[in-house]
Each structure stands twice: as C-alpha cells, then as structure tokens.
Amino acid sequence: MVDKDLLSIQEARALVRAARKAQAEFAQLGQERVDGIIKAIADALYAQAEPLAALAVEETGFGKVQDKKVKNILASEKLYAAIKDMKTIGILSEDKEHKVTEIAVPMGVIAGIIPSTNPTSTTIYKSMIALKAGNAIVFTPHPSARKCIGRTVELIRGVLHDCGVCEDVVSVMSVPTLEGSTELMKIVDLILATGGPGMVKAAYSSGTPALGVGAGNVPAFIERSADIEDAVAKIFASKTFDNGTVCASEQSIVTEAVIADKVKAALVAHGAYFLEGEKLEKVKRVMERSNGAMNPEIVGRDAMYIAAKAGIEVPAGTRLLVSDEKGVGPRYPFSKEKLTALLGFYVVNDWKEACEMCHALLQNGGIGHSLAIHSRNEEVIREFGLKKPVSRLLVNTPSTHGAVGISTSLFPSFTLGCGTVGGSSTSDNVTPLNLMNIRRVAYDLGNAVCAAPAQQGYGQTHGQTHGKTYGQAEAQADAASLDVQAITAMILEQLKKMA
Ligand code: NAD
Questions:
Q1: Do the domain assignments include residue 305?
Q2: How many Å apart are CA 207 and CA 214, to the nearest integer?
Q3: Ligand 1 pocket member 194 (CB < 6 A)
Q4: The pTM is what?
Q5: GO terms for molecular function, please (predicted)?
C-alpha cells in the first residue's frame, strides 16, 4: 500500500512535469489564439455558473447558491470583459523615442492554492488569468472543496481539448495533502496563494517566488455625516452575500456615539439581533475552535443556523447576530475575522477614536486587507485613505462587492493583495499582469558615456569601471583597505603576545 502523502507528492511532480511540457507549446500561441481560448473558457464556465455554485454549497456547506453563482459569473464573464483587451503575449510595446521594447515572458507553471470559501470562482479566475499570461496552472484544492474544484477544472480541460490545446496547462491534484502541496510549491515557478495566514506563510517559506494573499478583518466605519439607512442597507447586502464568506466582507461596525442609537435602530430594522448575556456566551462557545481559529461548522451559515447551533432562540427572520463589543484581541471573538452571519459593534466618541479602533481591529488579523467607510465628509475619507494600513479603502459601498470589483471600478478579482504590511508581496487585486515577467530590450542612446581609456595614473594599471576612469574614490577605497590590513596585522600581533 502506498502512503497518501507519498501519492500526493508523486502526483504533484507528475502534474508539474506534464504542465511544463504543455506550457512550452501553449506559450507559442499568439495573443489572438490565447484570447480565443480564454473567451471559450469564459463562455463555457458562465453557462455552468449555477451548477458549480450548487456543487460548492453542497460539498462545503458554506454560502448560498444564488450568490456563488454571482461569484462564478464575476470570475468568468466579467473577468473576461476586463482582460480581453490586455496585451499579455509577445511584444507589449515598442518605444521608438526611448529605444526600449517590452516583451511579455510567461512565468511558466503556477501553483494555484484555493480556499474553501470561494472554491469554484477562484479556480475559474486563476485559470483564466494564468492562461491569459501564457502560463500553466496546477491547483491544490482545499480538502473540503475537492469535488467542486475538480469539476471546475474538468470543465476547463474540456474546453481546452475542444480548442485543440493540451489540457495539461490546467490540472488539479486529486490527492491533496499538506505534503503534496508543499512539494508542489517547491517545484513550480510561482505560487498564487489565496487563503489564511498559515498557508500564506507556507507559500512564502517555500523558497519559490510567491504571490500570497491572506485574511481580512474588515471594519466598516459609519461616520456621523453618513446616510445611515444607505450605509446599513449596504452592510447587510455585503455581509449576507454568500453568508459572509468573502474575505472582504464586514466583520465589525464602528460608529460614533452621536449617531449610535440611529445606527442600532437601522440595524435592527434590517434584521440584526443584538446578543446579550447567556445568549452571547452560548454563541461565543460555538464560534471558535479550541486554538482560537474560526469554527468551520459555522462559517458561511445564516444567522438562524448559528442560533440553532448555539442553542438559543432569536426572532424569526433574524439575518445577523451582533455583539455590542468593548474589547479587541484574542479574548474577544467578535473582534476577529468571522466569515459568517456574525458582526461586532463598536461605539466611539469621534472619528479620531474610530481611526484607532479600526486600526486595532485590522491589527487583530486583517492588516493590509480592506476597510470600509460610510461618510459624506471628504476630509475624514482622505485622512483614512492616507493613514490606514489597508490596500483598499472602500467608500460608501458594500465592502464585499466593492473589493472584488462589482460595485467599484477595482479589478474583478478573487485574490486581493494585502501589501507588505499584511505579509503579502502585492497590494493589488491580482490580474494577469501580475503573472508575467517583462523582458526589456534597451538600445544604446548614442550619448557616448564610454570615454577613451585614461593615459596615466591608476587608469593605466587598474583599467576602468563603468566607463569612468579609475580615480580618487577608488584610490581612497584602496587606502582604506590598506588601513584594514595594517589593523588586522596589529591585532594578530597582540593576540600572539597574549598567547
Ligand atoms: P485555508 O488557509 O484554510 O486554506 C487555503 C488553502 O491552503 C487550502 O487549499 C489548504 O489546503 C491550503 N493550506 C492551508 N495551510 C497550508 C499549509 N501550511 N501548507 C500548504 N497548504 C496549506 O483558507 P480557507 O479557510 O479555505 O479560506 C479562508 C481564509 O482565506 C480566510 O482567512 C480569508 O480571509 C482568506 N481569503 C483571502 C482572500 C484574499 O483575496 N485576500 C480570498 C479568499 C480567502
């Protein structure tokens, strides 16, 4: 019997070998042909948006079919519209004036790491952006979403086959284990990793170049000048979309004391239930695992499900369970990322305190990701834009829809960079442009920087460096190195005496 981890490692190697061969051929196709293939994939996967959504919900238990369908459409039809005119293959530009030509060079074989929360949409999106830039991609699925990710890849491979392209440019591991993923990450050319902090760290520790993007813990600040009804309606739309599985969904509301009662009333009118006493304690008990991580049994579920799981009664039609919170940190589960129908609620005195509270919440697991603000005060919005450690400040918009480019002009994406502050090598909404190298062919400008060799002095014996005559600076450096030799000799002499 072969051990599962060995099987998984072997599979990773075999898939990468096949992908490498297929990618070498794929990279020879011109831009037009590649674009035709991407269009065919977009059309085919758009047509399957609903069945794939249903499969993902059935397998993971997370989210809602109609919203996962929207995500699949964003990852196919909408993404195609955003990338169709991008130049990504061959010569990108020829600047005659500055004499530089830019040529796209595919990165090669990419490892695609897929989270359980957006499994089918992220697989469609990563396949399309990888291929658009001339790469192959090998996926390692989240074990709890293996079937729906496998089905998505199967559909994409079918399209590739119909287009007369070797299917191995897109493949997926059928035996995903940590050991297999680790091997995959070692032998590819780039890791495109989307998930929690453990996985992002593993990707960056592999020694392979990586684009790893991690967790969010998005606060939504409702400032005193905001249209409260509009803000609350948008937060509900965002937080209940796919039962809150999107990493950019709101995790807490921060608001000012002067409007807190109105905000609370609007939340209750939309279906929020403020937990207190024993009910709050019971919910806290099912929120987390013993190590403080999110409990997958309540991720991507609606409020009534969580209430039943916690063994509490809430009014019929409750859409969000809210906790009026005072603290932030490991002892306050409502101050962390929840990705379900749970929301923290914080009241502060003014926007400056709100700034600090948002900062503390971001530090608590979502630094570098996103923050939402609802305000009509441009000065406050600008201050937040200038000071907050996030890669997206989402203004007067549902943060889920805003961050992934549905309700804003941000690029449609399921991999949202968190910047270096968030341990990520990018702050972008990742696009095909992040998945290619650019070779620059630079011609001499004819401005004669190469002077003739010097006739005397150091130049005669030591030649030249970078077209400049060997001069004073180098002579000083030599003198300094002589000093070092003299000092070393002195130290050795002292040591001899001491011995
Ligand atoms: P996860 O980190 O548990 O899993 C993601 C993937 O990484 C899975 O395929 C898993 O098998 C693999 N993995 C996990 N640990 C690994 C390790 N040490 N070595 C190798 N592979 C490993 O994530 P999840 O629970 O499915 O997704 C939810 C998390 O992802 C949330 O924190 C959410 O905020 C984040 N997320 C971020 C983005 C973004 O764009 N920034 C998008 C979606 C999800």
A1: yes
A2: 18
A3: yes
A4: 0.90
A5: oxidoreductase activity, acting on the aldehyde or oxo group of donors, NAD or NADP as acceptor
